[in-house]
Predict the structure.
Amino acid sequence: MEIKVKVNGTAHSLDVPDNTLLVDVLRERLGLTGTHVGCDTSQCGACVVHLDGTAVKSCTVLAGQADGAEVTTIEGIGRPDDLHPMQAAFRENHALQCGFCTPGMIMSAIDMVQKSDGRLDEAAVRDGLEGNLCRCTGYHNIVKAVLAAQDRM
Amino acid sequence: MYQFNYHKPSTLTEATSRMVEAEEGAYLSGGMTLIPTLKQRLAAPSDVIDLSGLPGMSGISIDGDIVSIGAMTRHAEVAASDAIPALAELAGGIGDAHVRNRGTLGGSIANSDPAADYPAAIVALDSTVRTSIGPIAGGDFFTGLFETALREGEIVTSVDFRIPDAAAYEKFPNPASRYAVVGVMVARCGDAVCVGVTGAGPYAFRATALEEALAADFSPGAVDGVAVDSSDFNADIHASAEYRAHLVGVLTKRAVARLG
Amino acid sequence: MATETGIGASVKRKEDARFITGAGRYTDDVGQHGQTYAVFARSPYARARLNGLDTSAALATDGVVAVFTGADLQASEVGDLPCGWMVKSKDGSDMVQPPHPPLAVSSVNYVGEPYAVVIGETLDAAKNGAEALDPDFEELEAVVDLATAAGADQIHESVPNNQCYDWELGDKAATDAAFAQAHHVASIDIVNNRLIPNAIEPRAALGEYDEASGTYTLHTTSQNPHLERLVLAAFVNIAPEARLRVISPDVGGGFGSKIFVYAEETAVIWAAGQLRRPVKWRAERSESFLADAHGRDHVTHAELAVAQDGRFLGLRVQNKANMGAYLSTFASSVPTYLYGTLMAGQYKTPAIYVEVQSLFTNTAPVDAYRGAGRPEATYIVERLVETAAREMGIDPAELRRRNFIQPADFPYETPVALTYDTGDYEASLNRALDHADYAGFQARREASEQAGKKRGIGFSCYIEACGLAPSQVAISLGAGVGLFEVGEVRVDVTGSVTVVTGSHSHGQSHETTFAQIISDKLGVPFENVTVLHGDTGRSDYALGTYGSRSLAVGGSAIIKATDKIIAKGKKIAAHMLEANEDQVEFEDGSFNVADSNQSLTFGEVAFSAYVPANYPLEDLEPGLSEKAFYDPPNFTYPAGAHICEVEVDPDTGVVTIEKFVAVDDFGHVINPMIVEGQVHGGLAQGIGQALLEHGVYDDTGQLLSGSYMDYTMPRADDLPSFTVDTTVTPCTHNPLGVKGCGEAGAIGSTAAVMNAVTDALGVKDVPMPATSETVWRALRNGGNG
């Protein structure tokens, strides 16, 4: 099937098998390997991207469902010399160790802050990170980072 | 995933015809259950029919004391709605943020997962499930483990909920999956008390013994001494049937206390 | 040199730039032109004979390139997967090691054991092929229960009673005598629950064979690429080490589970050679659950003999340890030398005797998981101490104080074969008590009771032996490898520095910490130091990362190399400045001649080494690049005090952690931010073991907790923010005075949580994990859940 997606601002027209997942479009077809796959039951959140501005697990979206959509991945939000405030906060607060869950964490956290209708507190951030697993940090510094970033977003 | 043909019909008729034509069709709404199932090769549909292109299937409208929610309405949208606060709270506790951004009301109830949250509301609130064929009373909708009253090819289009006088949902989440080990919705409509229970049994049901006790005395204490029959309750590594039965009582009390 | 980037500074990490922008390069991100995809066929049975395997339909499947079976590997003389640590039984006999072919040949012994690999042009093709395999299994009764495994059906022909070894440590007679003198004996029966490691990056491998050079390259998710290469070369017979390169690029967490040499990468690299094409494999999470080495899984009876005044007189431990179906790479060492040796804890217990029977079952192999033996030992000691305190009516903090090894006692030789170099256990405990507001606990407990809740507090004063390890000690105890580390410091022509370490970072932050050390010691800007790791083609043979050894052993090797750089730099500077070498001092990045204003920068000396115009070539080689191997003289002994406070909802049994305090002594700390992060992660895993995580098999050996739907991973909303602090007694025997921090959180915390839970409930024990139903039952029964 033919799909049209705009990824990180660039329009793509791609011919993919019907049973293709969005994450495979990103990783295999577009070489955007910053989006990771950590599980097969849609739990770990390593694959979270923004689909039309909303955080979704790209391992649980078919390519066809993304047809006509705008997708933003970790590669699309900031560069090393021009970081998104959430990226910067993750670095400043040591909110990552092995880095594998980090892209999904950051994409989830950005959406969480953007959708919050006030200042998030620690409990709200912890609740909002329910769909992202991290095995390294114990979440302590991730929570700090999200709380720090919301003031700068 | 096995190979399948992906379709995105733009009318209800086209969708149901695709299903009829398919060797083995599967409707796709939010995909939060179907896609993981496909990924693990636990299902092998020949055709996947995406309902997201159907018009008029999404959104929340209020007409008098009826709240109508389109089947393709995402959990996040229901969670953000103040039409029925207890339903919003329920929707806000489904899965995680990403599931709520994709998962839909219709997809959830059509699956009749014993651990899904929405079924508690379908049975507890005075609800009507509207479909491509006709209305189904909420109380008649769930018929078994992963079984509903939906006929072959029938598509849920919306659900009408009568706004209760008061309602509260209490959930005890599975610590791993975050599905409901037990979820209880208590609703009051006039003198009637409805207690909808999900998670505990093979499918959502109304706890009539609790309802009778609460109709006589709407207080947490009224729950004490009401035996919850757990003979057909689910049991797994997270909770025995006995513990689930206990939780039904605890959660009911908590919901009642909130409605105090 | 104290700077913003030197030793002791919380420097932001170099690694982060790529990880936060999606530019990390993990094994699954590496692709090669023309690569094929491997899918493993795995046993659906816990125990079965494999009487035949028809591959014809699989081979005929569209897109299938090849199918290889266990018999194919055997015919090609692919060796078995070895266990690298020989443990001897009480009677002096060697442990019994059953054959462990990478792909099962004639029998399968756990659900998920691979018996064939299907290679496809696409992943889907390979999966289709794997489904088309037609194995002839004859199911046998599985041996699942550890407690009764010794008397059950014999799993392996060569292993009577399913016993791997029956090991002991300590003086049995002296310990029995101590118990005869006891005023009080506290005893516990403990199940240390099986855990499944769950690094968020699943294991993966990409094997390549270059026909022109006859060279193999394996990208894989390994914590120790050299060890991987050694095993593949020396035991599996892929190729000599010189023609086998193993690269561990960015690795998404390990926690021990990526130390081991597994069937999958073995089959992948071998198949690449057979097919002359790259072969790639990435585990699906369900495969990780089934086939990553699991952790813990002990059944233990333990007793503590106490004098009337609270002095510990003796400790006796009888333990059964589950090895799973086969011996994983270091499985045998975990419940023995990493376990029995820790039974003294922080205490002057004079007599200790430990017996460990290791048994095979039809479950996934069990090996090192964060802490590896030391969490299990700590759990025994600290649960026993708390039990004794409660039974004797002594405050648990006070009972510990009465028994601590005191600062004046170091070096302290324990009755279980270790010599602790230094520590100040009371200092850590006192600091922790302050943070925990122990004095205010009773008031908080009463407030909880008013609210219908139950509150408890629990302690754990742990010690660990890490910085693995003195090679000769380890080898004398059965290790098949030395345990030194290598560090290379290459000063570039313009004075920037490239450091190559044999240890591997998969979250530990070597690129930052090691750069801080170099920046500090050589006065080179932090930005100008690059740390390379994870490639056998880059560094000399070394042993990798586990046992909290990277800084204590790997960092020490780098210091040794740096010392050589400075020594050579002094020679060069002396020549250039026409001074005597012994007059040249190196400080803050300058070579200075004593009592003069003559000075050269580090960069000037480096440049001269590579452009040797004014240079003593007759006495000194050009260049400024040094390498050192470091073999530690002793283990390091991080220790600390963890205090956990919980609240229990008696209606549901839900346990909430209200406060967790960890005060650890890691010796000197290079980067406090990074060290705190390591503690946080360890705490989450230790708390996860106590309250959430459980690898559960049913009676037939099916894994019930085989996905994130059923295996409870700690999530953000399960955990509190932690209070962490450190005390410092520098390690006495390595140049940085460091001890290691990677495992402490996981070692200390579990006992603290369970001591708190049992305190809240007023019961002696609750099995782990203390799930809501378990706790609810314990409350209903008023005793053991």
Q: What stands out?
A: Chain C has three domains: 16-22+484-630, 34-140+203-282, 298-468+634-781. Chain C touches chain B at residues 124, 127, 131, 286, 651-652, 692, 694, 696, 704-705, 708-713, 718, 771-773, 776-777 (CB under 8 Å).
